[in-house]
Amino acid sequence: MGLFAGKRPTDLGVHEGRLKAAPTTPNCVNSQSDSGYSRIAPLAYSGDGKRALARLPAIIAAMPSGKLIDFRADYLYAEFTSKLFGFVDDIEFYLDEKAGVIHVRSASRIGHGDRGVNRQRVEAIRQALG
Description:
The chain is α+β, with helices and mostly antiparallel strands. The protein has a single domain, classed as Kinase associated domain 1, KA1 (TATA-Binding Protein, 2-Layer Sandwich). Helices cover 21% and strands 27% of the residues. The protein contains 2 helices and 6 strands; from the N terminus they run ββαββββα. It has helices spanning 49-62, 117-129, and strands at residues 28-30, 43-44, 66-71, 75-81, 88-96, 101-108. Strands 1, 2, 3, 4, 5 and 6 form a 6-stranded antiparallel β-sheet that branches. β4 (75-81) and β5 form a beta hairpin. It is globular.
C-alpha cells in the first residue's frame, strides 16, 4: 500500500437499505445523497438486476488499479489505488431491486478533494455497464 492509502473503513456496507452517507468534503459521490457535490444518479439497468450487478466485477477488473474486495447477492465493494501516490478510493454498489437501480458510493479515504476522480470513475462504470 502507498503512503497515502489510509485505513480500510470498517463502517461500509448497506445499513437499513442505505450506503454510508457522503462526508461534507468534496471527495465522495453517493446516489443516495441529497446534497450538492456528492449527488450522482444511481446506475440504471434493464432486465435482471442480479445479472447487472454480476457484470460489475469484470468492469472493475478491466479498469486501472481496481481490486474487488467483497461481492454478495446485492452488494459489491472494491478499491482503486492511484498510481503515483497510492491514494485509495472505496467504491460500493447496492442493488435496490424495489427501486430498479444499483446505488453507488465512491469516496476517497483521505484528503479534502478528489479532482473529480470518483465522479469520473462512476461515470466510466455507468458507460461500461450500458
